[in-house]
Every structure is written in C-alpha cells, then in structure tokens.
Amino acid sequence: MRTRKITAPDSHDLKSKYSQAVEVTDAKRTLYVSGQIPVSPEDKVPEDFLDQARQAWANVEAQLRAADMGLDNIVKHTTFLADRAYRAENSRVRREILGEREPALTVIVCDIYDEEWLLEIEAIAVA
Predict the structure, then answer these.
(1) Which domains does the chain show, CATH number per domain?
(2) C-alpha distance from residue 4 to each of 16, 60, 75 (Å)
(3) Which of 91, 89, 110, 111 is nearest to 102 (CA)?
C-alpha cells in the first residue's frame, strides 16, 4: 500500500499535522471504524476531556489491532466534539497519539449521543 499527500496543510496552521487529501494506491483492505466513544472496557467514562480523548483513541487502536492494522494504516479520521472549547485539547491529544502521521481529518462540533461523552472518533484505515 502506498499513500501520498496531495497538498500540504495551510501554512498558517503547521502544527495541525494533517493532510488536506490522501491518495491510496494498491490497497487490498479497507476498514471503516465506527465512532469510538470515550468508554473503557470496564464501562468507565473519564471525567475530563484529555482522558476521554485518550480513551476514544485507545478504542480506535483496539479496532485497528483487531483487523491486524495500526495507526499507520489510518488515512482519514473524523472527530465529533461536544463543544468548540475542546479544539485545542483535541489537537494536543491527536498529535500525542498520531505523532508524525498526517492522515486527512475532519473535526465537527455537534451534539453527542450521550451527554457524558465529550467526543467520538471514527476512522478509515487501509492495508
């Protein structure tokens, strides 16, 4: 599988670490990960946003592992935020988790299914 960034992020936000577009060639498998919520395997929801974001990403990673994939396979992810106020913290955790990876991304501010959840993350991965 090969991926190629089509265009770089806008120069005004180089810290974002994402691609405006990602082209995938020669992929044999595509995984669509449903919105992962900030609930642990023990059915616990962390109280603060940073821990909820880390838990949601841990759940994304668990789905990837179940399909014999990892973070390197993500080509696109969407984060749904319960409030615009979480933008900076969301970016911080995304950079912490993804490191130098730069998949395409979308962030949407919306009502979340459960009021206790502050975000959901869905992803598309290829191998």
Answers:
(1) 2-126 (3.30.1330.40)
(2) 18, 22, 10
(3) 91
For residues 36 and 9, the answer to whether their CB atoms sit within 8 Å is no
State pLDDT tens for residues 18-27: 788 888 889 9
55 exposure class (CB count in 10 Å sphere: 0-12, 13-18, 19+): buried
Tens digits of residue pLDDT in 52-111: 999 999 999 999 999 999 999 999 999 999 999 999 999 999 999 999 999 999 999 999
* Residue 97 to residue 108: CA distance in whole angstroms: 19
In angstroms, the CA 83 to CA 126 distance is 30
